[in-house]
Amino acid sequence: MILRIAYLVASLAIIIRCIRADPAPDITTLEEGYAYIVKLACRGCPFLYQDSSAGKDVPWESRNDENALLLNVSLPYDRPILEINHAPIWPVSKVLPRIHATQVLSDFSVTDLAKLIEYGQLEAGHETSSGGAIFGLSYHSSIHHAAGHEAMVIYFDVFEVWSGLPDRPLTVQLDGKDGEQKMVKIVVLKRPVLSALESRESGWEIVTVELVSREGEKFQQEMKFLEWDSFGQIGTPTHAASSFFSAFLEWLDSGVMALFVFIFALVGIFVVLCLFCIFGCDLCGDEYEKAQHGKKRKKSWPNNDLEHGKGKFRSAEELGLLGRGLGGQVVGVGKSD
């Protein structure tokens, strides 16, 4: 009897261990139509880990184990925005978002994945219990409208990963020549509005999430992780203007500088009001005052007299001399009979 009980306990332990070791699938559905977890194989990527038992400042090390990246594909209820790891990829924006992904082993189990989701550590990187690092993703993307349907087809391809956790920053190209490296295909469909309180723009849901081959797809956008930040592509005029404006707002937001700017603004407004009161009095006077002021100016003008305006009177001889030359002589003045 005792041997039978021991045998049952050992068998149960083996079964539980097998269940716990069951690897998570490539696509895990969290909520049908709205949330999925994609386990994207990272071909050629070393697995980064840190032995935290030896201390907090232990350097990161790597080993050649097959690994994958976790992508959280979600579509909120209240707005039509498709997100990957909380970064919007549809609708397309001029500023492409930077996306980070957690690295896990390829045999990462369903139980471990459930723990990450339960404790909210899916995008926490090296702070998770998975042991993997966090990578910045360089990716291609393209969006197509499905002909004859109110549906969008989104392709998302990771072609390079970067991590600054090791002593030397690590950059790895995801080689897809052998066809093993896959990309993510997402299909979103506009569903009918079921309530008068529901917005027509929010009526979208995810129909399909799958891993497909890269072959034959012409991507519309490319985002290299080290060439972009929250202001856009580094080195472009748009990036320079956005970063300058943001820095200026942060400068104004500082306590002391904001106080100085407020004081200078008050002084400037006071100066403008004073100038308006000094030079704008003529504009505020009525027509009678303007007419009286005009009369005073006319009386004070020295050449208003008629004789002053014409100059000195001249005799007839002088006029004749002026009209006919110095040698001429005036015979008579007046009308002849």
UniProtKB/TrEMBL annotation:
UniProt keyword Transmembrane present: yes
Signal peptide range in chain numbering: 1-21
Positions of transmembrane segments: 256-281
Keywords: Membrane, Signal, Transmembrane, Transmembrane helix
Listed name of the protein: Uncharacterized protein
Organism listed in the record: Polyplosphaeria fusca
